[in-house]
Model the fold of this input.
Amino acid sequence: MDTLLERIAIDPEVCSGKPCIKGTRIWVSLILDLLASGMTEAELLVEYPQLVHEDVLAAIAYGAEASRERDAAVSQATDGRDRRGARLQSAYGRNYMTSKIRSSPSS
Done:
């Protein structure tokens, strides 16, 4: 995975320091958002011909690494009220998700 992460650049002079594919101004978050929205890798590579398969893998690897460094709160809507829960945790193969749902404060 380290080899893949070498394809990611973080430079304060490029895209305000957002993680990008090295040599481009294509944000890692853009690639992840497009994949998450249902775009296939093939469609992504057609839309951004400067990218190659390894760049897409690098974006996914970067996202995985970032998720290991902090918990991500997943919002769940239940009964019309916003609830916080399902804290994702990295345990290298153990307990990827725990369900801790608590009510949000009443308005």
Q: What stands out?
A: The chain has four helices and six strands.
